[in-house]
């Protein structure tokens, strides 16, 4: 039954705005718990990161881990434009995401976004991934939502690098 005690149980998570409007912010099934026992809703953090012109896609990780991390797929066009603006040579996205100035820029983007979230929700470390996620490569649904399980499996090595030594 979806209606219990007068509430419609949809599996969505939301917040009340102005005491009268319910804004849906995430799906309950996407929540995860850190090793410290705190729950994290990944979608608002991901959406905030994707506001940057340099970020094409992002997925927050951290289930049963000490801190929140992020897998970030940079926008090749955005990175190329940023590098050109800063008089840096862009050859490929693979090379660009290893450039110290580009890494520094992404660190700045992540730190800027962290100010909008509480301590537990803040991204402590991230990995830049060179390949775009798509329906064809299996990471995205036809509705262009991230297939979290697929990404977790496919990028397990990148996730382990985030948590190495912690």
Give the class from helix and strand content and strand pairing. alpha+beta
Question: What is the fold named in CATH at topology level?
Answer: GMP Synthetase, Chain A, domain 3
Work out the radius of gyration.
17 Å
Q: First CA to last CA: what distance?
A: 43 Å
Low-pLDDT residue spans:
none
The helix tally amounts to 6
The first-level CATH class name:
Alpha Beta
Q: Give the total of domains.
A: 1
Please give the largest β-sheet. Answer: 3 strands, mixed
Compute the number of strand runs: 9
Fourth-level CATH superfamily = ANL, C-terminal domain
Report mean pLDDT, rounded to a whole number.
Answer: 90
What would a concise description of this structure say?
The protein is of the alpha+beta class and 166 residues long.
Task: Give an overview of the whole structure.
The longest helix is centred in the middle third of the chain and has 15 residues, at 100-114. The protein contains six helices and nine strands. The protein is 31% helix and 25% strand. With 166 residues, the protein is of the alpha+beta class. The relative contact order is 0.13. The chain has a single domain, classed as ANL, C-terminal domain (GMP Synthetase, Chain A, domain 3, 2-Layer Sandwich), CATH 3.30.300.30. The termini are far apart. The strands form four sheets. The chain has a three-stranded mixed β-sheet, sandwiched between helices. Strands 1-2 form a two-stranded antiparallel ribbon. It has a two-stranded antiparallel ribbon with strand order 3-4.
